[in-house]
Amino acid sequence: MKTVLMVAEKPSLAQSIAKILSRGSMSSHKGLNGTCSVHEYTGTFAGQAVRFKMTSVCGHVMTLDFLGKYNKWDKVDPAELFSQAPTEKKEANPKLNMVKFLQVEGRGCDYIVLWLDCDKEGENICFEVLDAVLPVMNQAHGGEKTVFRARFSSITDTDICNAMARLGEPDHNEALSVDARQELDLRIGCAFTRFQTKYFQGKYGNLDSSLISFGPCQTPTLGFCVERHDKIQSFKPETYWVLQAKVNTDKDRSLLLDWDRVRVFDREIAQMFLNMTKLEKEAQVEATSRKEKAKQRPLALNTVEMLRVASSSLGMGPQHAMQTAERLYTQGYISYPRTETTHYPENFDLKGPLRQQANHPAWADTVKRLLAEGINRPRKGHDAGDHPPITPMRSATEAELGSEAWRLYEYITRHFIATVSYDCKYLQSSISFRIGPEHFCCTGKTVISPGFTEIMPWQSVPLEESLPTCQRGDTFAVSEVKMLEKQTSPPDYLTEAELITLMEKHGIGTDASIPVHINNICQRNYVVVESGRRLKPTNLGIVLVHGYYKIDAELVLPTIRSAVEKQLNLIAQGKADYRQVLGHTLDVFKRKFHYFVDSIAGMDELMEVSFSPLAATGKPLSRCGKCHRFMKYIQAKPSRLHCSHCDETYTLPQNGTIKLYKELRCPLDDFELVLWSSGSRGKSYPLCPYCSNHPPFRDMKKGMGCNECTHPTCQHSLSMLGIGQCVECESGVLVLDPTSGPKWKVACNKCNVVAHCFENAHRVRVSADTCSACEAALLDVDFNKAKSPLPGDETQHTGCVFCDPIFQELVELKHAASCHPMHRGGPGRRQGRGRARGRRPTGKPSARRPKDKMSALAAYFV
DNA sequence: GCAAGGTC
C-alpha cells in the first residue's frame, strides 16, 4: 500500500485536519522531537487505497543567517553585509530536529500533501518541507505527480474536505517573495544595528542599552511613540471660552445646557454672547426629538483586539497577554489564540461552547437565558482564512487558572457571550433651546434593553437623569448663564492599545509579531511603560528618531515596510524577478546606509546633548595593565571598563556586579583583576579585563573569567583552583571560589551548579594531590577550632569532596540563583543529578591537567 | 550581540 505524507504548520492543526479527514478514526503517536505528532489512518488517494500519515512542523523549519565568520562584529565592516557576506539557511530550532524528524517520517512515502497555512509564510514553509523530505521519498514513476498543495480558508469539515478534493501545487513565487523578505530584513537590520551600536557605544557611556538596534518594524514602532512625544512637546495651550446655561425644570431641579457654538477662542466675542444671553429670563424650547439607537454587540474576537483590551483594560502587556493566552490554549480552555479572523465560519457550533458556560457562577443567569430564549446571530466580521475567532472551549474558575490567566479567560468568555447576545438598545432624547439669539441643547439616554452590555458591563450606557417632557414653544426659567474659561490640553503619551492600532493600520508586523516589536523597543530602553500602559520614549529613543528624521526620514517612517512589501508582492504575483527585486532593493538600502554613515555626525550632535562621553562616565575601579592608570567602571548597559588614557574599552560579563579583587594582578598582562558576582545566592569568580576581551590561550573564548583560564601556574586559574568535572553539565569544571569563605563554595565554570562545601573553615586550598578513586583534586581545609566537624581537637583535614566520608557529609549541591526561574535546573532534567555525593565518573581527563598545557602556553607566547 | 517571521 502506498503512503501519503501530509504536513501542517503546527501540531494542533495536524490533529484537527487529521480528525476531519479520517472521520475520527486515526491512531496517533509522538514524533522523535516530542513536540510533533503523527496521525495515521487509511483511505483512498488518486483512486487507490493508501495509508495517510498526517504530521506537522512548528512554524519555519529554517532561518536565514550569515556564514559564521561574518558574525564577528569587530572583523566585518557592516557595509559588507549588503552584498559580499554570504548567507546560509540554518535550522530554525535545532532542539526540534525538524529536518531529521521530517526525513524519518517521509522516508518511503510516495506522495506528499502540504497543509501549511495559506499565506506567503506558509507557502515558503512548503518548500522548506520539500527540501527536507523529497530526497528520502520514493521516486515517482513515469512523471507521475507526487507533490500537492491543499488550500483551505477555514478549519471546517466542508472546507478541509473540499481542499482535499481539489489539490493544487505549491506556489513558488509566493515562497520566493518570503525568501527575499528574509534576506532584506537580515542584511538591512544587521548592517544598521551593528554600525549604530559600535559607533555610539564607542563614544558614550550612559546610553544604558546593550544594543542600539534598527529594523524595518521596530524602528517605525518607536517612531510612533516619539511622534506623539513631539506633539506633546510642541503643544501650546490655547485659552477658550464656553457659555453654560441652567434652566429650572421643576421646583428644585435644574438642567445643564450645552452651547451650540461649543467654544470660542476670543474672549470679547464670548463676553458679547454672554451679555446678549443674560438679557433673557426664559429659555424657549425650539425642538424635541426621541430616537431609538443601538450599540452594536462586538465582533468575534481576534488576536489584535484581545491584545488591545488586555493592555487597556486588564493592564497586561501584549507579550505577557500572548503567553497567558497560549497557556490557556494548550490547557484546552480557549481556542487557538493567534488569528486575524473576526467571523465565525458557517456551521460553527456556537451553542456548544455557550452551554459549557451555563453553570458558571459568574454568568450562569445570562447564559441560561440566552439558551432558553435563543441566541443572536453573530455580526458578520472579516474572514482571514486562518483560524476561527478566539473562543472559550471549556468552563473554568479563578481558583484553577490563577488570577492572571483568569482575568484574560474571563474577558475572552464575556466577549464570546456578547457576540451571541443582542445589541444594546437605548432611547436618545434631545431638546434644543433658544435663549435670546443663542442656541443650546441637552441630550439624555435611557436604556430600553441592555443586550450584550449585561455581560460586558463596562460597555453599558451610563445612567443619566431623564429629560423633562416638553414640546416646541414651552418655556423654562433661566436660572444661570455663565462664561467658563478653559484651556486646550496636550495629548497624552501613546497607549499600548493605540500603538497596536497604528501598527495594524500601517501593516507593521503581524498579529504574532506585534507584541515582539513592542517588547523589543522596551528592552532596548527606547521607551518605558508608564502608568496606564502608556509608552514614553527615553532620551535614547527620542535622539535616535530625531536623528533618522534629520538624516533620512524614510528610515523611521512606517512606509519603509509597505514600500518594500509592494516590491515583494510583485515577486509573489510573478510580475517581477526575485533576483532583480532583491538586488535593486538591497542597492537602495546600501546607498541609504552609506549616506547614513557619512551623515552620522548629524545624529551625534543630538547624542552629545543627552549623553556623556565614555571618558566622563563611570567611576575609577581597577588599574590598566598598559598605562597603570585607573580605568573607569561603567555600570550602565553594556557594563564595561574604559581606560581613557589608552582609549580602550573592555566589556564585562552582563547581569552581575563587579568590584576590585584585592588589587591582585594578572601575571600575563599586569591588569588588576576584578571580581564578578551574580549576587549572594549566585556565584562569583575573578576576571582579568584584558584576558576576558583578548583570550590568551587557544582554548579560551571571549568573555571568560579566571575560572576558565588554563594558565598553568597562576594562582587564580582553572588549573590551580579546578577540582573536577561538573556533576551536571558535559563540559564544565567545578572550581573553588577563593572569595566565598567563610561559607566556602565550589561552582561550575559553565553551568549554574554550585556546591556549598564548608561553613566553618578559615582556609581552603586546592591540593596538588588528586583522589585515587575519582581523580578530583583534594581540598586542604583548616576548620575553626570551636566549630570543627573533625574528631577530637583536629582542625586540619585533606580529602576529596566527592569521596571523603567527612567531606561528603558537608557538601550540599545547589544551583546559582539566576534572573529567570526557567534557567534553574528543574527536577528530572537529566539523570545523574546529585552525584556530588558519589564517585566521579572515571576515565575522563581531570580538570587539574589541561589537555595540552604546552601548546596552550605556546599559543600565548607566539 | 544583529532583523522579522513562523511556533512550543
UniProtKB/TrEMBL annotation:
Regions of compositional bias (Basic residues) in chain numbering: 821-851
Source organism of the structure: Equus przewalskii
Protein purpose: Introduces a single-strand break via transesterification at a target site in duplex DNA. Releases the supercoiling and torsional tension of DNA introduced during the DNA replication and transcription by transiently cleaving and rejoining one strand of the DNA duplex. The scissile phosphodiester is attacked by the catalytic tyrosine of the enzyme, resulting in the formation of a DNA-(5'-phosphotyrosyl)-enzyme intermediate and the expulsion of a 3'-OH DNA strand.
Enzyme Commission numbers on file: 5.6.2.1
Domain of life: Eukaryota
Entry keyword set: DNA-binding, Isomerase, Topoisomerase
Catalytic activity: ATP-independent breakage of single-stranded DNA, followed by passage and rejoining
Top enzyme class: isomerase
Region annotation Disordered: where it falls in the sequence: 821-854
tRNA processing among keywords: no
Domain Toprim residues, every copy: 3-153
Protein's recorded name: DNA topoisomerase
Record CDD domains: TOP1Ac, TOPRIM_TopoIA_TopoIII
One Pfam family of this chain: Topoisom_bac
InterPro entries: Topo_IA (IPR000380), Topo_IA_2 (IPR003601), Topo_IA_AS (IPR023406), Topo_IA_cen (IPR013497), Topo_IA_cen_sub1 (IPR013824), Topo_IA_cen_sub2 (IPR013825), Topo_IA_cen_sub3 (IPR013826), Topo_IA_core_domain (IPR023405)
Topo IA-type catalytic domain segment(s): 171-593
Family of the protein in this entry: Belongs to the type IA topoisomerase family.
